[in-house]
């Protein structure tokens, strides 16, 4: 999985006054969990642009001014309800020998036979939870919709991999091809026409 580097400064004071001062200065207060002790730090808000405002999944390298460095993933983010300004971010530390669970985007590939026949593709799940060692975390999960006929569903079990576990029930639908209104109307009209046609060998 691709990684983004965040450069920050460890926080000595974590009170409300210090936190407010950080935000007024254009910085975001953050906490890194998962290690022996939580690490409080801050970084410029613009440093999180390529991490937060993207549909892609990334791991993070947190580099602090004191020389400390941590591998992590974004765990939780708080934003202002009106301005969408980032108020606080929680990270979770990664270790090479410990599995981690995170959401990874689904990437649809192929052309569905059902869509070519007039069906409508519906992506039920845009992200899936995976559990894996950090080195095995995928950038995305590929969902091949080529075999899907009209009315078919693609279940999460079809996306299994030896490198990671999907934390979903087996009946979770990732994508499906639904019958479009136009196709349904055409089928109904065809059925009516067939029903109204005279039987073979009989005259009207």
From TrEMBL:
The keyword Metal-binding does not apply. Residues 6-91 form the Large ribosomal subunit protein bL25 L25 domain. GO terms for molecular function: 5S rRNA binding; structural constituent of ribosome. InterPro entries: Rbsml_bL25/Gln-tRNA_synth_N, Ribosomal_bL25/Gln-tRNA_synth, Ribosomal_bL25_b-dom, Ribosomal_bL25_C, Ribosomal_bL25_long, Ribosomal_L25_dom, Ribosomal_uL5_bac-type. It comes from the Bacteria. GO terms for cellular component: cytosolic large ribosomal subunit. GO terms for biological process: translation. Residues 99-179 form the Large ribosomal subunit protein bL25 beta domain. Keywords: Ribonucleoprotein, Ribosomal protein, RNA-binding, rRNA-binding. Part of the 50S ribosomal subunit; part of the 5S rRNA/L5/L18/L25 subcomplex. Contacts the 5S rRNA. Binds to the 5S rRNA independently of L5 and L18. Belongs to the bacterial ribosomal protein bL25 family. CTC subfamily. HAMAP family: Ribosomal_bL25_CTC (MF_01334). This is one of the proteins that binds to the 5S RNA in the ribosome where it forms part of the central protuberance. This is Large ribosomal subunit protein bL25. The lineage of its organism: Bacteria, Pseudomonadati, Bacteroidota, Flavobacteriia, Flavobacteriales.
């Amino acid at each position: 999985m691709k990684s983004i580097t965040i450069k920050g400064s460890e926080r000595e004071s974590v009170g409300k006054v210090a936190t407010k001062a950080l935000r007024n200065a254009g910085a975001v207060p953050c906490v890194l969990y998962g290690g022996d002790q939580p690490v409080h730090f801050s970084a410029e808000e613009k440093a999180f642009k390529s991490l937060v405002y993207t549909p892609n999944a990334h791991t993070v390298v947190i580099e602090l001014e004191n020389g400390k460095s941590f591998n992590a993933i974004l765990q939780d983010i708080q934003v202002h309800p009106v301005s969408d300004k980032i108020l606080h971010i929680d990270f979770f530390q990664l270790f090479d020998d410990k599995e981690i669970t995170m959401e990874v985007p689904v990437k649809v590939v192929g052309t569905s036979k059902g869509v070519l026949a007039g069906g409508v593709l519906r992506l039920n799940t845009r992200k899936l939870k995976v559990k894996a060692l950090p080195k095995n975390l995928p950038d995305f999960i590929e969902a091949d919709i080529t075999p899907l006929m009209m009315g078919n569903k693609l279940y999460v079990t079809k996306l299994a991999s030896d490198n990671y576990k999907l934390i979903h029930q087996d009946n979770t639908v990732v994508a499906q091809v639904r019958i479009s209104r136009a196709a349904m109307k055409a089928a109904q009209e065809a059925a009516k026409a067939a029903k109204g046609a005279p039987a073979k060998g009989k005259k009207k």
